[in-house]
Amino acid sequence: MKKIKSFYIIVFIALLSLVAIQCNYKAQNKDVYKILFLHHSTGDAIWKGDSKSIEIRGIHLGAEYDVPKWFTNNNKTKGTSYQISEKSFPNAAPYGWHNYPYDYYNIWVKNAGDKAYMGEPTLEMLTKDYNVIIFKHCYPVSILNSDSTNIDINSTVRTIENYKLQYNALKQKLLQFPETKFILWTGAVMVQSQLTESNAQLTRSFFDWVRTTWDTEDDNIFLWDFYELETEGGMYLKPEYATSPTNSHPNKDFAQKVAPYFCQRIADVIENNGTKTTLSGIYR
Description:
By secondary structure, the protein is an alpha/beta fold. 43% of the residues lie in helices and 15% in strands. Strands 4-1-5-6-7 form a 5-stranded parallel beta sheet.
């Protein structure tokens, strides 16, 4: 009889443990937000920040990179479940290492659908897996010209007229996925030695247009104003923020400085539709 009672007690305890595990799992995963950051080298610099960690054959060694570390700490201190991952987009092959307005338009609008285009996932694919999608351009986006006589949404020529057509088409596409939040970086810009004054003026004009006209309230599209952080009101990447006077990649000091702003902006977009931070990600 004692053995039978002991058996039922053990079974009862096991069932209680199973229920507790399931409840804990549901509690931990109730508010999971999957965040995807699409980028190339400038984005990689911000993702890593000032981290001393290294990567060997795809294996991450050493300290955690600044952006994922921020989210790990945020999850611990605030009880959130934000899962952020990153991906090169587009890849060098087969598509090509280009992430300008035309390329997002080409992959996500012109070639939209449930199948990848030249190996790159469409929005129909990405939005099935991620709650937040962040995308950006490399700094050659600032080699920008104007040509009002040859305006073509399907052109790879980098003119402000083409950019605006491509951005407007992108916006209409992003709005088709209201359950997903999108965060666009305003463009990375180049150091003064690598950019003409005309290019720089047009780039500032374009991203002013993005901030004041293209970006509208009460939708699922948000900005992180990386351009303003790099220029601080000027037209070029500030020399103290650059890798060198001829290299427009951000240096580690700048990356370490702005990585938390990036993270704060993402969390604020998720929690408050971006109302508690400036466009640059600084708490109001």
